[in-house]
Amino acid sequence: KIYEVKMHEAYECKTVLQKLPLHIESIDAYDEKLVVGTRQGNLLIYEVKSNGIGLEESDSSVQLVKSNKFFSKKPIIQVKVVPEQEILISLSDGVVNVHDLGGASMPLISSVKNSKGALVFSTNINTEISLTGEKAAVIRLVVAVKRKLQLYYWKSREFKELGPELLLPDTPRSIEWNDESICVGIRGEYLLLRTNGDKKELFFTGRIPEPTVSSLSDGRFVLSKDDMSIFVGPDGISFEEKVKWKEPPSSVVEDSPYLVGVLPDSLEVHSFEPWIQIQSVEAIKVKHLCSVTGKRGVLFAASPSQIWRLTSIPVHVQLPALMSEKLFGLATKLATMSDEPPEVLKNQIQRIQSIQAFDFFCQRNFKDAMTLFLQLETDPSHVIGLYPDLLPESYRSKIQYPEELPFLQGKDLENALAALIEYLTEIRRSLQGNVKSLSGPSPGSEGTHGVKTKKQLLQIIDTTLLKCYLKTNDALIASLLRLKDNYCHLEETEQVLIRYSKWGELVILYQNKGLHRKALELLKEQALKSPDLPLGNHMRTVSYLQQLGCENLDLILEFSDWVLCAHPSEGLKIFTEDVQEVEYLPRGKILDYLMRLHPHLVLPYLEHVIYSWEDTSTLFHNKLAIGYIDRITRLAIGNQPGFLSDFVGLSPIPDSEEFKSMCSSPSSVTSLTSASDSSPLIEYKRRFQFLIETSSYCSWEAVLTHIPKDVLQEERAFILGRLGRHKEALSIFVNTLNDLQGAEKYCSREYVASSNGKDVYVILLKFLLDLKDGSDGQSYLEEALRLVDSAGHRIRPEMALSLLPDGVPVEHLREYLIQALNSCGSERNLMTLLRGLLQADFLVLKHQKSSIESTKIFLKETNLCCLCQKKFTNQSAFVRLPKGLLMHYSCHQQSIQQ
C-alpha cells in the first residue's frame, strides 16, 4: 500500500567527528562508546555524550578514551563489541581476533582457530537463564572463509568449534545469524542455511553490486534486491511487506520502529507497518552505519573521514506529526518506547488507539473500529454516540469527538449497525461476568461525559440493541426482551415500540418489567378492537394470565372476566391449564369467583380439579355433587337456563364396561351411555353417577340432604349404598323404581365391594317375599325363587329357608338345595384338607423343636454377649440365636423392644 504523507523528522543528525586524519573502515557502538577501526590499523574508542536535542542546545561532547595505533598492521575490516563479556571481535588481515575491551590498549585474548583467510563474520548473542537462576550470554560466531562457514561458541575466554563447516557454492559477501538460521549473500543470490546443514536458495540479488543482509530483533532477515528490501523469516519464507528505497541501499540497520538505509548521498528512514518513508538525511559518501548495542534511538553513520550521530527525536515531539498524518500504528509503537511513567504511558497509548478507532469508523471500517473499541474497553455510550438516533440528544450532545461524525445511510448504515450489534453483544457478555463498569478512553477529548455505573451501561446497551434490531432484524427484538437480565430503559423502549407498532414486543417488555396491568390492558384493547390485529386473539390473554402465579391472583380474576364472558371454553383454561403456575393457584378463591360471576363454569372447573389434578378436598367433591344435583333438578323440572344446553369445558370421564356394570340396569346404562348422550339431563346424570362410584372424599350424608324427594331416586340409592344403608337403597329399587334387575345388580356390586354387604341378597329376598300384587294378593314368590336359584351361593341356606313360605314345594328349591348341599360338602372337604395340612405342619415343627432342644450348648468364660460384648455370669439367663450366637436374655428382650 502506498502512503502519501508529509515527512517529519524522526532523527536529529549531528557531526561528532570530521576531517579525521585516518581512513575509517569499520564502526560499532555500545553504551556511550563508539569503536572505530581504520584502514591504517588503528583502533579508536570515543565516548560520545549527548547534551540534548534541538538547535538551542549544545552539541554532543566527544572524547577519545582509548587508542591503539598498533592494533593491526592491516586494515580493520570489521569490529563487533560484546559488552556482556567485555570483548571486542575484529577482522583484520584475514584473521578474526578477540581482544579485551577492558584493557587500556585492548590486548589480544585469542585468535579464532582456522579463521585464516576470513572475509566476514557475524555473531549471534542470546541470554539464557542457568539452573541457579543467573543470566548468562551465549555467544556464537560464524566466520566466512573462502567458500565455507565456520561455526564457533564462546567458552573459557576463547571461541571453540561448534560443529562441522558449512559449504557454499560461492564466496560469501554478507552474512547474518539469527537463532538457528544463517542468511548468506553471495554473488547474484541469497542462501539460507540451518546449523544442522540444511540449505535453501532464496532469490537473486538483482541489479545491486553487492548483496546486503541485515537482521531484525524479531528474528527476520532484511535482504536487498534492486531498490527494495525484502523480509525473510528464519524458515526462508518471504513476507509480503517490502521497503522501497530511492536507490539500492548499501547497508540497512534496524532502530525500531524504523529502518534506516544507507544510500549514495543520503540516509533514508522508513517505518514498519505502515511501510512508508519518514525522513531523508543528506549525508555524502556514507559507507558505514551501526546502532548502539542494547540501546534504541541512537545510530552512528560514517564516511571515510567523518562520523555523524543520529539521535531519535523525543516521542512527545513526533506524536503530533504522526497523529496529524493518521499514522496511528506508528504512533502507538513510538509511545510504547517512551520514558514516561507506566500509568501516563498507558493513558497515552489508549488515547492514540481510541482516536485510531474513531478514524476507522470515519473511514467506514466499522468492524476494525468496534474491535479496537472493545480492546480499549471504551465507554459504550461514546461508541453508540457515533450513530444517529440511538442516544437521547440531550445525552449525546455532551460527548465530544475529534472530528465531525460521518453521515451514514444505505449500505453504510446497515454495515455500521451490524458491527455495533456485534460490539454491544460482546460488551454485554463481558459486563454480565464483570461487576466493574467499563471506563476506558472515549474517542473524544478529555473529560467527555461518560457512564459511571454498570446498571447505566447495561441500560444503554440493551436499549441500543433494541433500536438496532428495529432497523436491521426485528425478529430478534422479542428474544432480547425475554432475557431475564434485560435492562432496556422502560420509557424510551416503550416509546420506540409504540412508534413502530410492535405491540407483541411491547407486551413482552411490560411482562419482563412486571407491569402486568399495562400488558393485560393492551392485550384486551387489541383483542376487543379487531381480531385481525397482531394481538387480536384472546388466547394471548389466556396464555399471559396462566403465567402470572398466585401473587397476581387479583389481576388474573380481573382480566379473566372478559375472556370468560366472550370465550368461556378457552377462558376456563386460565384456571385449568396443566402448568405449575395455574395448578398452584388458590382453588377456593377461584371457585368462589366462578360461583359469583360465572356459575356455568363451576362444574367444568371442579371436574378438572378432581379428575385431572386429583384434588381430595371434601369441599370440592361436595360442591361438584351438589352442582350436579342442582343442574339435573333444573333440567328435570324444565327450569333450564340457556347455558345448560352447552357442556362448556366439561372434562371427559371414563366410559368403561366397569362403570356400565355399576349402573342400575341395562336400559339405564343404554340411556346413559349411547343414543341419548346428547341430552343434557342424561349427560349430567351419567357424570353424577360416576362421581358417586369413584369419589371417596365426598361427604355423602351432607350431599343426600340436597337431593329433592321426587328426582334422582337411583342416585339416592347409590349414595345410600355408599353409606352402608342397603335396606333403604334396595327399598328404593324395589318399592319406588320397581326395578328388580337394578336391585340385583346393586346386590351383586355391594356383595363384592362392601364389607357390610354380605347380607344384601337376604334383604332383597325379604323385600320380594313381602311384596304383594295389587290384583290377587299373590306374593312375588317366583321372583324370589329365581333370585334364590341365581344367587343361591351368596345366600346362607338357613336364612333362605327361614324366609321362604312353608308351602313352597321342595321341587321348586331342588336346584338351590343341591347347590347348597354341594357348597356345604365342598366347604367341609376343604376344612378337612386344611386340618390335615395344619396337623402335618404341627408334627414337623414338633420334631424341629425336639431336635433344637436336644442340642448341647457349651458356655465358656471367654464367650461374650453378641450385643453388649460382656461375659456371662453363673446366674445369667441367656438366649441362643439360630446362627449359634449367644446373648443375655435381658439384651435379647431389649433388642426385641427396639
TrEMBL record:
CHCR repeats lie at residues 575-773. It comes from the Eukaryota. It is found in: Endomembrane system. The keyword Membrane applies. Keywords: Membrane. It is a peripheral membrane protein. One of its GO terms (cellular component) is cytoplasm. Residues 21-296 form the CNH domain. Pfam families: CNH, Vps39_1, zf-Vps39_C. One of its GO terms (biological process) is endosomal vesicle fusion. Belongs to the VAM6/VPS39 family. This is CNH domain-containing protein.
